[in-house]
Write a structure and sequence with these properties.
Elements (H helix, E strand, L loop, with lengths): L2 H12 L6 H27 L5 E3 L5 E6 L11 E10 L4 E4 H4 L3 E4 L5 H7 L7 E6 L19 E10 L1
Antiparallel strand pairs: 1-2, 2-6, 3-4, 3-5, 3-7, 6-7
């Protein structure tokens, strides 16, 4: 994004003083939202052509780092998993590895990208998921994750409970 041109445009826009400040905020917010979505979409488009990256019909991308064995969980299974989550710029926002223990959770109680992705895995598998914002935290974001963020998770499926 060329911030100098953006600033120049905003200053020109405000010159006549006719634009209420709320309209300016809305315009800026819409612009930034669209910019973040475009950055995520561009990342996913480039990533999808990399060796070993598969894309599901929903747009979830994944890479098998290590195959597992046995059964796959269903969307109603409880699972035990280790994971690390980052933004596409590499900033880590969460890690069970850092806490020193995997977490247990129901697959139907997490983001859609995890619900879909973990059903592809067998116990013992390790995958990397590239999750579009609409399969992640969407327009609301959450602690450490801005709205409309494309997410990257490395996940190890330890057990199905």
């Amino acid at each position: 994004m060329n911030f100098e041109k953006f600033e120049e445009g905003m200053l020109t826009f405000w010159e006549d003083g006719k634009t209420p400040s709320q309209d300016s905020v809305t315009i800026f917010t819409d612009y930034m939202r669209n910019a973040v979505i475009k950055i995520g979409n561009d990342f996913l488009a480039e990533n999808s052509s990399k060796d070993g990256v598969e894309v599901t019909p929903s747009g979830l991308q994944y890479q098998v780092l290590q195959e597992g064995f046995g059964e796959r969980p269903s969307d109603t299974s409880k699972v035990l998993a280790h994971y690390e989550g980052t933004l596409i710029n590499g900033q880590k926002f969460d890690s069970s590895y850092d806490r020193g223990e995997p977490i247990e959770f129901p697959l139907n109680g997490v983001i859609a990208g995890w619900t879909e992705g973990l059903q592809l895995m067998k116990v013992g598998a390790k995958y990397k998921f590239y999750i579009p914002y609409n399969l992640g935290y969407g327009e609301r974001g959450t602690r450490g994750i801005p709205p409309y963020s494309t997410l990257i998770f490395t996940v190890e499926l330890k057990d199905i409970r």
